[in-house]
Recombination protein RecR
Amino acid sequence: MASQEIENLVQALSKLPGLGPRSARRAVLHLLKRPETTMKPILAAMEKVDANLVTCNICGNVDTQDPCQICNDPRRDPKALCVVEEVSDLWALDKSRLFPGKFHVLGGRLSALDGVRPEDIAIDKLITRVEQGGIDEVVLAMNATLEGQTTAHYIAERLENYPLRLSQLSHGIPVGGELDYLDEGTLAQALRSRRPVSGT
Ligand SMILES: [Zn+2]
């Protein structure tokens, strides 16, 4: 029915999470109906983000400035660091506004199955940040999955000889739960009831 150009747009959109071919088609129809108020602002926003997109060299967040807004924010407590697997987890936690400190994105989790080793994610970078000093609390906010917990345990071992309060998210995260799917209430409770890391 539609031209190849429009089909290409539908196909591209249908690859986004949460959008299948049907909803992509609906979205495109919506864009085409009122291009001035829907398509043009999206296009402009995307171009702007695309032109300035960077990964923060300090924490691994994705932003349009480096260091990112969070690392640059003087109101945040630089002594507290929350370690997460992915940028999506950082955004989910940051949205809850419950953690007053800064973040560190690992960019994955240890996985024997997928062959992800400590040197494949930003663990050494985390240790370097801690070694530089000025950090007195590290919160391990890994997903409540086997791999997430393996990662947390490994990091706890690597950090055990540093003078830090080390804690990890506790109750409220369902087993197998992924942080960026949790509602803010659950996330808030998990952060409030974080517990010292045991077994190190
Ligand atoms: Zn940053």
